[in-house]
Write a structure and sequence with these properties.
GO molecular function, one term: cysteine-type deubiquitinase activity
Strand content: 15-25%
Protein name: ubiquitinyl hydrolase 1
EC number: 3.4.19.12
Number of strands: 50
Largest sheet: 8 strands, mixed
CATH topology of one domain: Cathepsin B, Chain A
Family: Belongs to the peptidase C19 family.
Keywords: Coiled coil, Hydrolase, Protease, Thiol protease, Ubl conjugation pathway
CATH superfamily of one domain: Cysteine proteinases
């Protein structure tokens, strides 16, 4: 036999013990005089003072003791309701302390028992702090902490003493809404000194509100270093690591320091103050002079310039040859100016290996950004400057272009090759995205502050924000969504999908749509009429459930309504996220009972502790919680149809001790008055009109819980010929004689003990009638006694009114029961139309005196020997046994694959009762079956592995390993569009190309929900190498290392032999062509100027008769391994083209338009793009007989003997347009350029290398960006 946990803690004889589990702070364990604040006692009056005035100051002795705590509770609750206002100060209070305070002041009694205010102590916020004394990053409002206004905080300090940890926060505005700044930037402060190498002391650390003015910021920095500092002082923000309290003035260089402009209107947020910023405070000397030169103007040192100045995107990329003037010495002489095309640059590090600085729990943002900026086509789009042409600042759904511009700056910085180190990847090669973070929280307040967030939520917001900021649709028209009309499945589906996508594109058209958005098909089927509804919707990322569900395993104590059936302990296993609605549905199926007739409650300390309704999540139940399910003969109050028809009164019944005579007139009850376990009674309308009917209904239910159930009723001997059903006698554990009074005398009944079979729920006895009387010659031995009714002296029923949820709400436990309700309600008994004596919010208390309680249930000391609430035979349903066997077999299966997750995503499921679908054919809501299918997939596929689950009090994560491919993710068999076309004999534009994806990024999460850490593995498409990004730390990695149990977001790129991006690709190509044409013009102009200047200093020489006329030739482009390479038959012997076939780079009309037809083969050989992609073979002057080349016109110049040989070397003179990862827009002649530039292979990862290899003009703009 299995038993329910003993209710010993609720016995009437129980006393508080030292075993009660409580967490107390050190202040609570200290001396009472220091742990609480006592109210001062009034002093005795002076002799001449009015005695009445003195008595008026004394507390009213008749006032109940709980009045003062209850008044405090009501006051605090009222003050907490006030709305937040910007500039206010609110305080954080640990939820654990606040919960104990609520118990002590409101009268709540939880599982730890009652609590008094004397046990509270000051506010204890220690649980909210980490090891460094900062607020925990994963603290959640309502679960870990709560907020109180300043008025409440002052009262807490007054009532309970000053706390150790004071966590005050300012209310600031975020997107015009007041929010509490939970995580203000924490900064470091050092003091400027003239000592060269100061070593003493640690830097000061302080938190600064983002809404604080810069004047207050400087003041707080100074006060942190020198308390009560009067000034004058000023502060510098420096880009150094804070290691000591003092900072030498000699180290404050122009490249490291920036003076803070003090203002009452400029905020710290506008100043760009971020987490972990370092400031140096300079105190003015007594002489009135500053340690730093007085000619320094505020904000002069290293003021960061925006990436795109007034000159525009491309102008900002030009070399700035002006020197920054020194603040501490004479200005350096200007350096020699070089043309951008002739400058020799050596990258100081590999492009795309810049880390991102953590500004305080911003790793979720850093990892997501690294994956996005390493998306090849997205990088090209922003570095090419195309985004500047597509900004949509007037889009009301966008961010006025701010997010797109901030992201462009970020892309430029991360792909820059300036600075850093090539030998190692450390935090020095990093960039802190302050501006991006400020723009992000400006438009998305949920990301404000420095609390940990979900990386997937950041990706979703950023992609949507970029889409709206760059939406090519300036005015969105109204578009109706097409409906499925049935018909031939194949063609109708294709038409519906096409119309749905076209309607979507009328309102949404951007680079994000071109690259990231696909389409899925949703199918709903009505279970009643088989109506099919099909819709097509776009998606930007694919959220895949893991085919693993964490099981919630618990024992449910099931109480059937039929008294002939035993109550059972039923173990169940159900999904961790299931609700108790699902639990009742499962139990109803197993126990053959209507789920709507089941009532689930948590029992604790002889009470109903929690009302387990549909909203209660199983995972929120603790392992030791006792859950009881009662079967009712009617609809349960937890059923949604409970009030649809007149029902019996379903009331809770509690067992309690009868009050002592001394407090018969006092209706108040205490917790120790209750014993045993409560149960549920259903009283019909007729029974509820009399006390006798109510008493009879309660006695019937009591039979289940006592071995002496027969003795709850009176019996009589049967009349002749009358036979009644046999009523078994319940044995009490020893032989006894029970006297039954009948009309015709006394019948002696002897109880003979019967040894029960193993597993029986109760011990039954056989009733043997000895000396049975003979009535009218009929032997009564063959008949059973007749039950007359309940004995009315066994227990008394008291009424408890206005209970909520069967008395399970916490506040109801402190409400006194009262029998005054009976008196008032019984006054209506004389009225024939009187209402019932009961209400639906009533509760009943069965009170037993000591003797009756011991007889029917026993005592706690004897382990309730005659009670049956500790006897629960276990019932294991065959369905559970089968599930356990199946789970045992699955434990040996291989790891989960990405394909398993895709299959789970497309699996058909039935809608829940909370998510019904309205069937237009049935004209009512139905629990339809629903399924999702991939219809078309995007060029860049973002896969979100759904690892996190979150309920009100439980945060959980699935850490299962999911195996996903690095290469060759084939989705061809899962994409519906291709399958439908294939089945109908149709062909799409790219159906002949396999739908295969390759991995290029993984965003991983380590730890649990609400905390943990995010990192990223990313493929650098420029170098072909994998790197691991851990905030500012970047290390080389292997692709296989990215496949691990922490993978959260997967970034895949479609493999193709052409190009990706649809319209965006065409625009990028046009922008590159314009840049190259512009560069060619600049190069030609520079060459002419150079030739003209050289001609002025040289002498004309006669032209040898045999010298070729180079003026009639154009330089020929050498193309290697290109499909556009010309046939040698079209060229003359000197490998030069006729002059009339050349293109003048200074004539814009000479270049073909992208809107025109493709060029002919011969024209294509001299396309400026091809010319820009390869080297020029200039004639070598040394080929002439005298080693000199004489000009035949004024445009030709002789070689300057003083010129640099390198400039004229044909091996070194190469024109390169290969993509420069730094984003430089100017092709350059470089010494390091290879004489044989590589040709981009078809399918290479996204880099737009040589435009000549991508110049298939017939396909420009023809790709929709979807792998269909």
């Amino acid at each position: 036999m299995n038993s329910l946990p003993s209710p010993s803690s609720s016995s009437d004889n129980s006393t508080p013990t030292n075993s009660r589990k409580r967490q107390r702070s050190q202040s609570m364990q200290s001396d009472a005089s220091s742990s609480s604040t006592k109210r001062p006692q009034p002093q005795p009056p002076a002799v001449d003072e009015d005695i009445d005035a003195y008595m008026a100051t004394q507390p009213d002795q008749d006032t109940p003791m709980f009045a003062v705590p209850l008044d405090r509770f009501k006051t605090v609750q009222s003050l907490k309701q006030q709305p937040m206002q910007p500039g206010q100060t609110w305080y954080l209070v640990a939820a654990e302390w606040l919960k104990r305070w609520t118990r002590a002041t409101s009268g709540e009694i939880d599982k730890e028992g009652p609590l008094s205010e004397d046990e509270l102590g000051p506010v204890d916020n220690a649980s909210l702090l980490d090891s460094l004394g900062n607020l925990n990053a994963d603290a959640v409002e309502g679960i870990d902490m709560d907020y109180v206004p300043e008025d409440v905080w002052k009262r807490f300090v007054e009532w309970y003493g000053p706390p150790t940890h004071v966590l005050q926060r300012k209310v600031i505005l975020r997107a015009a809404h007041p929010v509490l700044e939970l995580y203000p930037p924490r900064v470091c402060a050092m003091q400027l000194t003239t000592v060269p190498n100061p070593q003493s002391g640690d830097p000061a650390h302080l938190s600064v509100s983002a809404a604080a003015s810069t004047k207050d910021l400087v003041s707080q920095l100074a006060q942190a270093l020198v308390p009560d500092a009067a000034g004058p002082y000023r502060a510098w923000r420096v880009n150094v690591e804070a290691r000591a309290r003092f900072f030498p003035v000699a180290s404050l260089t122009p490249s490291d320091g920036r003076l803070i402009i003090e203002s009452d209107t400029r905020t710290a947020e506008e100043e760009g103050v971020m987490e972990n910023d370092v400031f140096v405070v300079e105190f003015q000397k007594k002489s009135g002079k500053w340690l730093v030169s007085d000619d320094v103007e505020p904000g002069e040192v290293q003021e960061e310039k925006p990436l795109f100045g007034d000159a525009g995107f491309f102008e900002s990329k030009k070399f700035d040859n002006r020197n920054t003037p020194s603040r501490y010495g004479p200005e350096e002489p200007p350096k020699k100016s070089f043309s951008p095309s002739l400058a020799r640059t050596t990258p100081s590090r590999e492009p795309g290996t810049v880390g991102l600085g953590n500004m305080g729990n911003t790793c979720f943002m850093n990892s997501a950004l690294q994956c996005l900026v390493h998306t090849p086509e997205l990088m090209e789009y922003f570095l090419s400057g195309v985004f500047t042409e597509e900004l949509n600042p007037d889009n009301p759904l966008g961010m006025h272009g701010a997010i797109a511009q901030a992201f462009a700056v970020l892309v430029e910085r991360l792909w820059s090759t300036d600075g850093g180190s090539t030998s190692s990847y450390t935090s020095s090669s990093s960039y802190t995205p302050r501006d991006f973070k400020m723009q992000l929280q400006r438009f998305a307040p949920q990301f404000s502050g420095y609390q940990q967030h979900d990386s997937q939520e950041l990706v979703a917001f950023l992609l949507d924000g970029l889409h709206e900021d760059l939406n090519r649709v300036l005015k969105k028209p109204y578009v109706e969504k097409p409906d499925w009309e049935g018909g031939s499945v194949g063609q109708q589906l294709l038409d519906l999908a096409s119309r749905s996508w076209e309607g979507y594109m009328k309102r949404n058209d951007s680079v994000i749509v071109d690259l990231f958005q696909g389409q899925y098909m949703s199918t709903l089927v009505c279970p009643e009429c088989d109506k099919v509804s099909i819709t097509f919707d776009p998606f930007m990322y694919l959220t895949l459930p893991l085919p693993i569900s964490k099981k919630w395993t618990h024992d449910i104590y099931y109480v059937p309504w039929d008294l002939e059936k035993p109550h059972l302990k039923v173990p169940i296993e159900i999904n961790n996220s299931a609700s108790f609605r699902d639990v009742r549905a499962l139990l109803g199926r197993w126990m053959d009972a209507p789920p709507e007739n089941l009532l689930t409650m948590e029992v604790f300390s002889s009470k109903f502790w929690k009302y387990m309704d549909d909203h209660q999540i199983c995972s929120e139940v603790q392992p030791n919680d006792i859950i009881v399910c009662f079967e009712l003969p009617c609809l349960s109050p937890q059923s949604r149809r409970y009030l649809e028809q007149p029902l019996p009164f379903v009331l809770p019944v509690f067992l309690g001790n009868a009050p002592a005579p001394a407090r018969l007139n006092n209706s108040a009850r205490s917790a120790k008055d209750d014993f045993g376990y409560p149960f549920i009674v259903a009283i019909d309308y007729k029974q509820a009109k009399s006390l006798d009917g109510i008493y009879r209904a309660v006695a019937e239910r009591l039979q289940r819980w006592t071995r002496h159930a027969r003795d709850l009723f009176s019996w009589e001997a049967p009349t002749p010929g009358y036979d009644t059903p046999v009523v078994p006698l319940i044995h009490s554990g020893k032989d006894s004689i029970v006297e039954i009074t009948a009309q015709d005398g006394v019948m002696s009944v002897t109880e003979q003990q019967v040894i029960p079979d193993e597993g029986d729920i109760v011990d039954e006895t056989a009733a043997i009638f000895d000396d049975a009387p003979v009535v009218d010659g009929v032997n009564c031995r063959s008949s059973s006694p007749i039950k007359l009714g309940p004995k009315h002296d066994v227990f008394a029923i008291r009424l408890q009114m206005k209970l909520k949820e069967m008395g399970a709400t916490s506040s109801s436990h402190s409400l006194p029961s009262s029998d005054f309700g009976w008196t008032k309600r019984l006054s209506f008994l004389a009225d024939p139309t009187r209402p019932p004596l009961l209400h639906h919010d009533d509760g009943l208390i069965c009170e037993f005196d000591e003797n009756m309680k011991d007889y029917y249930f026993g005592s706690e000391a004897n382990k309730w020997e005659t009670a049956l609430w500790d006897k629960w035979p276990e019932f294991v349903h065959p369905e559970l046994e089968a599930a356990r066997l199946a789970e045992l077999g699955q434990s040996n299966r291989s790891v989960i694959t990405l394909q398993d997750c895709l299959d789970e995503f497309t699996k058909e499921e039935q809608l829940g009762e909370d998510d019904l679908w309205y069937c237009p054919r049935c004209k009512k809501h139905q629990q339809a079956t629903k399924s999702f299918d991939l219809w078309s997939t995007p060029d860049i596929l973002v896969v979100h592995l759904k690892r996190f689950s979150n309920s009100r009090v439980l945060r959980d994560k699935i850490d299962a390993f999911v195996d996903f491919p690095i290469e060759d993710l084939d989705l061809g068999d899962m994409v519906g569009e291709r399958k439908v076309r294939k089945n109908n004999g149709l062909e799409g534009e790219d159906d002949d190309e396999p739908l295969v994806y390759d991995l290029f990024g993984v965003d991983e999460h380590i730890g649990g929900l609400g905390g943990g850490h995010y990192r990223a593995y990313v493929l650098n498409h420029v170098t072909g190498k994998w790197y691991h990004f851990d905030d500012s730390f970047v290390t080389p990695a292997k692709a296989t290392e990215a496949v691990n149990p922490n993978a959260y977001l997967l970034f895949y790129r479609r493999r193709t032999a052409t190009h990706l991006g649809g319209k965006s690709y065409k625009k990028i190509l046009e922008a590159k062509m314009r840049r190259q044409i512009q560069q060619m013009r600049m190069e030609a102009e520079q060459a002419r100027e150079l030739n003209n200047s050289m001609t002025l200093d040289s002498h004309q020489l006669p032209t040898p008769p045999s010298e070729p006329e180079y003026t009639q030739r154009a330089p020929m482009v050498t193309v290697e391994s290109s499909p556009w390479q010309p046939d040698s038959s079209n060229l003359d012997e000197n490998n030069y083209a006729p002059l009339e076939d050349t293109i003048d780079p200074l004539n814009p009309d000479a270049f073909p338009s992208l809107e025109s037809d493709p060029p002919s083969f011969s024209e294509a050989q001299y396309d400026p793009v091809l010319m820009a992609s390869h080297r020029f073979n200039f004639p070598d002057p040394s080929e002439s007989s005298n080693g000199l080349s004489s000009p035949t016109s004024s445009n030709e110049a002789s070689r300057d003997p003083d010129s640099d040989d390198e400039v004229w070397s044909s091996d070194n003179m190469q024109f390169s347009s290969h993509h420069t990862p730094s984003g430089s827009n100017s092709p350059a002649y470089t010494e390091n350029s290879s004489p044989n530039p590589p040709i981009a292979k078809a399918g290479d990862a996204g880099q737009l290398e040589d435009i000549s290899d991508l110049l298939d003009l017939e396909t420009l703009g023809g790709d929709t960006g979807h792998g269909r």
